[in-house]
Design brief:
Strand content of chain A: 5-15%
Number of helices of chain A: 5
Largest interface: A-B, 38 and 37 residues
CATH superfamily of the largest domain in chain A: Winged helix-like DNA-binding domain superfamily/Winged helix DNA-binding domain
Distance between the termini of chain A: 33 Å
Number of strands of chain A: 3
CATH topology of the largest domain in chain A: Arc Repressor Mutant, subunit A
Radius of gyration of chain A: 21 Å
Order of helices and strands of chain A: HHEHHEEH
Structural class of chain A: alpha+beta
Shape of chain A: elongated
Helix content of chain A: 55-70%
Oligomer: homodimer
DNA sequence: GATTTGGTTAGCCATAAGGCTAAGCAATCA
DNA sequence: TGATTGCTTAGCCTTATGGCTAACCAAATC
């Protein structure tokens, strides 16, 4: 599951792949359709799709000679959870600092 | 600020860097402290810190010979927002499909 | 049944990313 | 002031990543 997060962020780190995710948020699409707006060779694009699929963000199946790709519901959850978790701890800490500052006028948060 | 998202996900794509973020969520720390749990040479580790700092996730300043690093509040927001946005469109779509399915008995969208 | 179409596989190339050692430098400490 | 500590810089190496072309295969089409 830690490896899940790994490949998730990895997959989302590339602009082409994020664009594909955004496109797919509107609904499933064929490889060709997804490829069209991207100025790169199909094989190159296909590898991006593979990364997305390996990360679990996307799934696809082939009907005839057309492969249709769609988002996998819930796939973003892991990433969102991680981010939320960080922010939670963090915010709580900032609250504490804030409280502290109100007491001792710490206007230059020199740490540790 | 699309480039913001870019470097954000990029920064979070590496396990060492995510670990540093998790560590820093507990509070600011010196370079040495942050480095300790990681089995890699300091210079290597320093470059991870640089990536984090360049992405805006982290900031640091030097007092004497010690550099202290801390999280930048709100830095994760862009990433969270992007994820939330995708999920929103997506979920709405799935709702529509659900509705559709109730009408026409589309009971197996199972791919793979 | 030949040709197009949509995707796939294989292989090559250049750059980026992540790792290392060695050496340097400024602030402390003995 | 000399040694130690905490980082920093420079440079090198290896692998991963993102891009390409060429050739191929199977499903539609003509």
């Amino acid at each position: 599951m830690a490896n899940q997060i790994e490949s998730l962020f990895q997959a989302l780190a590339d602009p082409t792949r994020r664009a594909v995710v955004e496109h797919l948020a509107q609904g499933p699409a064929s490889v060709g359709t997804l490829h069209a707006p991207h100025a790169m060779a199909l094989p190159t694009f296909l590898r991006h799709l593979k990364v997305l699929e390996d990360s679990g963000l996307v799934q696809s199946r082939k009907a005839g000679r057309v492969r249709t790709v769609q988002l996998r519901p819930g796939a973003l959850a892991a990433a969102e959870d991680w981010l939320a978790a960080q922010r939670t701890v963090w915010d709580r800490r900032l609250d504490r600092l804030q409280t502290l500052a109100e007491h001792i006028e710490l206007n230059d948060p020199t740490p540790e």
